Amino acid sequence: MKKSTKIISAVLASLMLVAAGCSSDKPAEKKAGGPEEKVLTVYSARSEQLNNAVIPQFEKDTGIKVNLVVAGTGEVLKRAKSEKDNPLGDILWAADETMLSSSKDLFMEYTSTENDKMMDGFKNKAGVFTPAFADPTVMIVNTELANGMKIDGFEDLLNPALKGKIAFGDPVNSSSAFQSLMAMLYGMGKNGDPMSPEAWDYVDKFIANLGGKMCNSSSQVYKGVAGGEYVVGLTWEDPAANLVKNGAKVKVVFPVEGAIFPGESVQILKNCKHPENAKKFVDYMLSEKVQNAVGMNLTVRPLRKGATLADYMTPNDKIKLAPNYDEKWVSENKAKITKMFSEHMEKSM
């Protein structure tokens, strides 16, 4: 009798352990070396249109569920830094190497299997920054207000008729204004030298032609031109081309002296929970399917060789790039350049 009781008790105990394991509220931990659960957390500073165009399709094609956290570049970067010792995100999809090089230690080294398919100049060079799309610096021109006025490049912005009618942000706080400043420094500098006296002499003349006006945000630039407050503005291609696409009386101008063509990149956060899923996400962003879909339907520029572009976008071979542009040098000297610009602004007041 005692022996039977012991056997029954042992069986009941085993069943209770199994039941406890099944009813636990805590998800089972992934065994070391086992497959990752099919989830991915993406910190994105990209546009709603771009997020919506690629993430649902990524989920459908891979079966990986994406937890999307959307905020500005500064905010998602701050979050990644605060979580450095215990990352809650897997992907940081924001900014470019110029903006992120000082935070390189946050990211895992990974070179996509699609890297060789990307255009020259837009491959992963540093091992962590993977350029996926581009949003070049452009001029947006109100075609009605310009009324045939020649506005093809930076030299034309010194036309006295444009004084007080140029929309430009503060390069200290606006990434589009900073990159536009770099484009003019490279384009107007002697032999493409952004720190030459000729480059900064042009900046002084440009500042004088602003007529004391400076926009408070990037959006104020293109909205101000489209709304008729300004004749021309310096901004990103994406919002300007989107206005063209939607029928606004504006046009996109790539300056004849050269545009800055930064590769908006995607990064994997170091020590993230789902590194293999993150690698799949990076590869997917560079895939022929995604690059063609974005090029045909949106106003950001794909960087894969031979990717299809919509007819409302300027063909790549019609765009002159800023001579001698050095992304690494710009990132290392950004603080110095913005300080110099502020000093030139103060001198003009």
TrEMBL record:
Recorded superkingdom: Bacteria
GO molecular function: thiamine binding; thiamine pyrophosphate binding
One cellular component (GO) term of this entry: outer membrane-bounded periplasmic space
InterPro entries named in the record: Ferric-bd (IPR026045), SBP (IPR006059)
Signal peptide positions on this chain: 1-19
GO BP, one annotated term: thiamine transport
Record's keyword annotation contains Signal: yes
Keywords linked to the UniProt accession: Signal
TM annotation in the entry: none
Classification via PANTHER family: ABC TRANSPORTER SUBSTRATE-BINDING PROTEIN, THIAMINE-BINDING PERIPLASMIC PROTEIN-RELATED
This protein's name: Extracellular solute-binding protein
Organism classification: Bacteria, Bacillati, Bacillota, Negativicutes, Acidaminococcales
